[in-house]
Amino acid sequence: xxxxxxxxxxxxxxxxxxxxxxxxxxxxxxxxxxxxxxxxxxxxxxxxxxxxxxxxxxxxxxxxxxxxxxxxxxxxxxxxxxxxxxxxxxxxxxxxxxxxxxxxxxxxxxxxxxxxxxxxxxxxxxxxxxxxxxxxxxxxxxxxxxxxxxxxxxxxxxxxxxxxxxxxxxxxxxxxxxxxxxxxxxxxxxxxxxxxxxxxxxxxxxxxxxxxxxxxxxxxxxxxxxxxxxxxxxxxxxxxxxxxxxxxxxxxx
Amino acid sequence: xxxxxxxxxxxxxxxxxxxxxxxxxxxxxxxxxxxxxxxxxxxxxxxxxxxxxxxxxxxxxxxxxxxxxxxxxxxxxxxxxxxxxxxxxxxxxxxxxxxxxxxxxxxxxxxxxxxxxxxxxxxxxxxxxxxxxxxxxxxxxxxxxxxxxxxxxxxxxxxxxxxxxxxxxxxxxxxxxxxxxxxxxxxxxxxxxxxxxxxxxxxxxxxxxxxxxxxxxxxxxxxxxxxxxxxxxxxxxxxxxxxxxxxxxxxxxxxxxxxxxxxxxxxxxxxxxxxxxxxxxxxxxxxxxxxxxxxxxxxxxxxxxxxxx
Lengths: 253, 309
Fold this sequence. Notes:
The complex is a heterodimer.
Chain A: E1 2-6, E2 9-11, E3 33-35, H1 37-51, E4 57-64, H2 69-78, E5 82-87, H3 98-112, E6 116-120, H4 131-139, E7 143-153, E8 156-163, E9 166-173, E10 176-180, H5 192-198, E11 203-206, E12 219-225, E13 234-235, H6 239-249
Parallel strand pairs in A: 1-4, 1-6, 4-5, 5-11, 6-10, 7-10
Antiparallel strand pairs in A: 2-3, 7-8, 8-9
Chain B: E1 2-6, H1 16-26, E2 32-38, H2 42-49, E3 56-61, H3 70-80, E4 84-90, H4 93-106, E5 110-114, E6 116-119, E7 122-127, E8 132-138, E9 143-147, E10 163-165, E11 175-182, E12 195-199, H5 206-220, E13 223-226, H6 228-232, E14 253-257, H7 263-269, E15 274-279, E16 292-295, H8 298-308
Parallel strand pairs in B: 1-2, 1-4, 2-3, 3-10, 4-9, 5-9, 12-13, 12-14, 14-15, 15-16
Antiparallel strand pairs in B: 6-7, 7-8
Helix pairs in contact in B: 3-4, 5-8
InterPro entries (chain B): DHS-like_NAD/FAD-binding_dom, ETF_a/b_N, ETF_a/FixB, ETF_alpha_N, ETF_asu_C, Rossmann-like_a/b/a_fold
Family (chain B): Belongs to the ETF alpha-subunit/FixB family.
Protein name (chain B): Electron transfer flavoprotein subunit alpha/FixB family protein
């Protein structure tokens, strides 16, 4: 069975995000970009399923500018077999929105016929948390979001999900969409030989129009601003002073 | 046209997150209808009628909504959405799971995790772990919106909206819930707590987390939270996690103990009314947002704090 894993190129999670002075968006010029961490977990999970003999092929997909090919190479260095770049040209990261990405992925699912799509639960740039669920809906497939454990037996998937207040276990028949939470696995580091090997793996490029998908943004971004700054308070010397301030100054206990 | 708010409930009672979503929906300036979809959910439906500012409660009681799977609830909401200008749900794990399916089936964008309603079509939402606030405008016919509960007060109780039964959508039978393990706790929920005691990697291990923080939380009637580092290290389960990828909270008092204050943690708690930080590292970023900071060894001062209160 094939597994399809969408991967997004985002601002590296160690880099502080900065708002452009003119309020039109984020300043992403000359900053380090990386694979969305939840997508790395998704690639790792898919590769483990292949190593366990359950999956036969892992396809990484990235939608965005041509430079997203780097993110696909990173996925292939973890162990994905091939990559598909959906080249969205000049469209900015903020203009390529979850519904459009879900439609692009649907078009690829229609041709590639994967049994499983593993997505990150959210991207750490727009924090939307939508694409996996939207893809599942467009395909008419079951979904298991926020997965912390996944097992596949034949065409049955059993998924443990992180929900408010605890865990939930779901069963569903494949094909299906799973989105990853932090504790699903710890992605491996790509080794140098695997990075070299990844450069030789097949990488196809396709345009949204060839997939018959309109990727025009649905949400207009009117303004992007820094949130109000919280100012630092005071340091207290000891527990007695802290309790006194909580009781008599802030009056919260 | 009215706003449809999807209630979050356990068939018996309504979760407080729904009350926050109703307050956000009121800012749209239209009638509010609340949907309670469940099985044997008349107690929850009754509770929903008491939410202030609600014009009508739609009740859909059918066996295939017993576990409220995303697929089946979304199918129902999609069918109802034709009569509404807006569909709102709380940005809880249930709301985040279900609502994007509705948006995709309606072929509209979803606006996730809003913190303000500027007008009927314009909303403010945090991006980049709360390092920026984006104001976005939707041109879609139906606005599908999830609400950051910490950003809106709970709607008051005391209403008396009428109930109306609505027919069930078909059972898609796509997923089966085979188990739920909910953490049993006498403590308040993280999302609704007035005081939160939260621990980080500085605690060293899960045993220390429990022996130091539980007595303090008990004394304060506080909920317990944790940083992602503490969750990753296995001190506590994931549902304790406060941060960009965990829960977003804004309690009256947030006490961060042994938490350095990584960006992604601050994203989940910096809107708290009062922040107290205890950390032995004076350079820890958490002190830049704390109202009261105590630079000290937590193993010495936390028991002292618990004893003094």
